[in-house]
Amino acid sequence: MPDILLEHMDLITMEADVGVIEDGYMAIKDGHIEAIGKSSELRSGDYVGYERIKSPKCGKRFIALPGFVQTHVHTSQALGRGLADDVDLITWTRKRIWPYEAALTEDDVYISALLSTAEMLKSGTTTFCEASGVKPDAIAKAVLDSGMRGIVCLSTMDLPGEIPPESRMNTQEAIERNLAVVETWQGKHERIGACFNILNLFLSSDRLWRSLTELAVDKKVFLQTHLAESLDEVAFIQEKSGKSPVQFLESLGALGPHLLAAHVVHVDDDDLALLKERDVKVLHCPGAGLRIAGIARIPEMLAMGILVSLGTNSPPCNNRMSMLDEMWLAGIMHKAVENNPQAVPATSVLEMATINGAKTLGMDQTVGTLAVGKKADIAILDFNKLYTTPTHELFSTLVYQANNAVVDTVIVDGEILVEGGKLTSINEDWLIAEAERRARDIVKRANIKF
Ligand SMILES: [Zn+2]
Fold first, then answer.
1. SS3 sequence of 262-277
2. Which of 22-26, 120-124, 288-292, 295-299 has the lowest mean pLDDT?
3. 36 CA → ligand 1 middle, Å
4. Number of independent structural domains in the chain
């Protein structure tokens, strides 16, 4: 692992009392941030032997900021993207994505997750949390090989439904398999964690909710789910319990700081108050929301102090795994809904993509901001591009103008994983060929008809 010195860059620290350091430097040693300051403070002879990354001599300075933290992405579904576009939800699930997932081999999931990590890294993401994966060991292997930081989990349903036999498990199996994932991966490797998972409220028993909630609290591990995602879910839970999905989970004792809830679109004022009171974390997925779920009440959640972070959700219902794309959507979609151009400003979007993500995953002591002692998880951006010109203001250029092509360098745990816009840990040409070949094979094997 090289010691690294970043020189003459604008540092977006995301530390409230530091803000942006113009023309700054940052030293990285043993995978941690060793020092941060103004470049003018550097003396010749400082940091001898460090690998130096500098802004170009002509043009605008590079921008260094904490790597993005994606809190909800289905990495085992990446080979299925484009497989279920412009179809209704029943076709999406039952005829396309469930058969696709059921046909995946361990190696398919590895390639799917590696494709996901490659795309995330190239858009500046350094940490992700799997949303509900199949074959979590294969996802963990992709995390290890890519050099990213990741949290894995197992997609879990314990009630019978129209799901493929391969995805079915009874309640006891569901508990044991979740425990096995956590025991295998949580705290066993520097860059990997694990969480419990319950896919949704349709296909999960009350006993499973109670058991995994108890285990999550006991083991201090998060429990992730999709909550209040569709009107069908609201109607189903209303019929079953006479309550809203949020109030139903409250009745099971399942709301709490351990709960990571994706989407949270169809909620009323009482639901929001409960989420705030119980410190439930909301995983906002703008692209998937616009395509399938609907638009969450993010401005109100932020105003109430609910912790909101960002995810790209499922590749077959967003098609992109770029946090920069997601940030752009998060920045513009709520303005239309609220009829208010000040709703969810660029600063809030950047907080959601960095420090809020780190807090959501309980990692804010180690990542999410640029501060001495924290892990060196850093994205370096080059705004010397047509679409980021002019740059009047860093945050708004980043949220409203930037795309993946601005990402020059990405460092995770002190290792350079993207250099000059190219992956260093993954052979991109090989990965594209392998992913394409496997995706076609899966469609044939699963007999998926377009
Ligand atoms: Zn999801």
1. EECCCCCHHHHHHHHH
2. 288-292
3. 37
4. 2
- Rounded distance from Cα 344 to ligand 1 centre (Å): 22
- Closest Cα to residue 332, out of 423, 396, 420? 396
Under a CB-based contact definition with an 8 Å cutoff, are residues 227 and 249 in contact? yes
CA 131 – ligand 1 centroid, Å: 5
What separation in Å is there between the alpha carbon of 183 and the centre of ligand 1?
23
Record the tokens describing residue 448, joined without a space.
């998926």
Residue range 11-57, pLDDT digits in tens: 999 999 999 999 999 999 999 999 999 999 999 899 999 999 999 98
The boundaries of the domain holding residue 260 are: 68-360
Shared-domain flag, residues 222 and 309: yes
Are 277 and 415 in the same domain? no
Q: What's the CA-to-centroid distance between 355 and ligand 1, angstroms?
A: 21
**99 within some domain:** yes
Copy the structure tokens of residue 283.
Answer: 């995983």
* CA 108–ligand 1 middle distance (angstroms): 19
Residue 278 CB partners (closer than 8 Å, separation 6+): 250, 255, 256, 257, 259
Per-residue pLDDT of 329-345, as tens digits, reads: 999 999 999 999 999 99
> If DSSP codes are grouped into helix, strand and coil, which group holds residue 66?
strand
Which pLDDT belongs to residue 450? 76
Residue 73 CA to ligand 1 center (angstroms) comes to 6
60 CA → ligand 1 middle, Å: 38
Residue at 93: amino acid letter: T
Q: State the pLDDT at residue 168.
A: 81
